[in-house]
Structure formats: structure tokens, C-alpha cells
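Bug #77: duplicate submission created two jobs. Keeping one. Sequence:
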Amino acid sequence: MLVLGVDPGTNTGYGLVNETDKVLKTVKWGIISPSSRLSFPKRLQSIKEGLEGIISEFGPDVVAIEDIFYSKNVKTALKLGHMRGAAILAAAGQDVDVVEYAPLEVKSAIVGYGRADKTQVKEMVFRLLGLSQEKVGEHAADALAIAITHIHISSFNRMLEKS
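Kept job's structure:
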């Protein structure tokens, strides 16, 4: 199973994780960072087109994206919602299924504790994938965590179906 994890934001992180025989392998990760000089609609377009290119090149089975979380700043939350929409459209436009996971679900799936901090999540992602911390930025690490979350939850659900 090849999963594209997406951490939407001004700097949209992405991470492709492949699971074969219960072994996780990183395929590619990075950040889509549209210029702040672009208008907001053009930044959304840049995020959408960047993800479309990744989906076209690698053909993931599913796109896993972070669900909306509560924010004290309404304007920030709305912009994040638009960026999530651009990511969802990129997948839907290429007939790739989209699943969404709340931050609490990601933390639980990766660390085993829903209130884990970002440092704990990143450290576990690096351990699970055998990556060096210097090579992966924060947003890409979050995207990899989201991809791993889908793989773990899918594996668990398949196991339940066999029971």
C-alpha cells in the first residue's frame, strides 16, 4: 500500500510511505511552499498543482490528510480549510480516495498517546522509518506521520475483518 500523507498549510508538507509485508519504507517527502508574493488563490493553485504532480508521478493508493483542528484564530482556521480543500481536490481530481485523521488520532497511532507533543511524534516517525532528523522538515515529518497513521489503522481494520 502506497500512502500520500499531507499536512496542509502555508507550507504544505507531503510524505509518501509504502508498506510491504508490514515493513514501512519512505518513498519521498518534501514541502510545497508557494511564494508569499502570490495572491492567496494562486497559492492554493500552487499547492493543488504540486500535489497533483506527486499523485501523477507516484500513483498512491490513498491520500491521508490532517483533519481540521480547533484554532483560536478564525482567519487562520479558514485559510487552513482552503488549503485542505486544495489538497482534497488534487486527489479527487485523479480519482484517489481521501481519508482524514484528527491530530489526536495521529498522535495515538504514532506514539500511543493522544496528548503526545510534536517532538515525540517526530522522533517516533524517524524511528519507524529509519530517517535522520536533519533531513526531514517539520511539515514533511507531520505528513509522514499522517501516512503512517493510515497504514496502521488500515492494517488494524483488515485484521478485524479477518477475525
